[in-house]
Design goal:
The chain is of the alpha+beta class. The protein is 46% helix and 16% strand. A four-stranded antiparallel sheet has the order 1-2-3-4, with helices on one face.
Length: 200
């Protein structure tokens, strides 16, 4: 095995371990205890904000350094734009933390979009509830066509599951969404690495 192949393998192993550690940290942070007054608020865990800020600062720093002290023949407009694109891709994590906040009640939901829009709806408006394994969110499609997306990373997911299962008939849930919400109601939240629920 050449040194190049070995180095590449080590890089991927380190990347995989780091990702597992980060996702484990996020999974634990969504399970933190909260005051009763906040039980029906659905918010992103603080870990999401931290990841967003660290990622933004990291990629901006790389973009600046690659054009100043670290400038060499590989420093082109293309690489700088790529670093800036990665920095911009971090912004949704930050905006989701501040704007993607929701509250639930026995009558319905006050839903906050990632970029500040808000919408209120009652449970009878929900047409179907599904789960996207690839994106890691529950999709509530309304009769109007509007789709509310609720991340599996949200703090407060067990209470959402309890209220949604109590106010929506079984036939409005896909099989996967129903099973995951039943588990979430019992404290077994969706596995952020894919594949069912975890005890986190």
């Amino acid at each position: 095995m050449s040194n190049h192949v070995l180095a590449s393998a080590v890089q991927w192993i380190v990347w995989g371990v780091l990702m597992a550690l980060v996702m484990g940290w996020v999974a634990r942070s969504r399970s933190r205890a909260r005051p009763t007054s906040q039980a029906r608020a659905l918010v992103q865990p603080t870990s999401i904000l931290i990841i967003g800020i660290v990622s933004l600062v990291f990629w901006l720093a790389i973009a600046i350094l690659s054009n100043t002290v670290g400038k060499n023949s590989t420093s082109t407009v293309g690489t700088t734009l790529a670093f800036c694109a990665f920095a911009i891709a971090s912004l949704p994590l930050i905006t989701a933390y501040y704007f993607g906040r929701h509250s639930i009640s026995d009558s319905g939901m006050d839903y906050g979009g990632m970029f500040g829009s808000r919408r209120q709806f009652i449970w009878s408006e929900v047409k179907v509830v599904t789960y996207s394994q690839g994106m890691g969110w529950f999709k509530l499609e309304l009769e109007s066509g509007f789709v509310a997306r609720l991340s599996a990373m949200l703090v407060g997911l067990p209470e959402f599951a309890r209220v949604a299962l109590a106010h929506l008939p079984r036939e409005k849930f896909s099989s996967e969404a129903y099973i995951l919400l039943e588990n979430a109601r019992e404290g077994k939240l969706p596995n952020l690495m894919g594949g069912g629920s975890s005890g986190a």
